[in-house]
Amino acid sequence: MNPRTPWGTYHQIADALRSRIYAGAPAPGDALPSESALGQEFGVSRTTVRRALAELEAERLLKALPGTGRVVCAPEERTDVHESPPSQYRRIASELREQITDGDLAPGAALPSEAALVRQYGVSRGTARQALSELEGTGLVIAVHGKGRFVTEGGNGAR
What domains, with CATH codes, occur in the chain? Predict the structure, then answer.
């Protein structure tokens, strides 16, 4: 397994899983394979798999059930991201981006943890993770393993 997965690979994994879900296999209510099993299937780390799953959770194609894992949502639980207002993770990312560009979060400042965002916004951990991942993708934020996510030097003033 390559320790450095190409950027955007999680989008490809999310697309593959999304296609399976819309094709009906797995069916609504069915549990997905574990993160470890999906990582082996796609040849990537669990972190990459988690990012893909967070994307699908943000679209409400999946939901996490304690003791069960992630299961496919029924069609009535889903939202169409193209027809609905911006999803929750985009709103959270936008608010954090504004705090960074306005200087409220200076370079080197720690961003709120996933758990803190879950409490603050009343969203799932996957939604909070997706918001933070989006900011990482823009270069405004860097993740430091075991420490958290921090505003980059180029964060302020970038719009």
Answer: 9-77 (1.10.10.10), 88-151 (1.10.10.10)
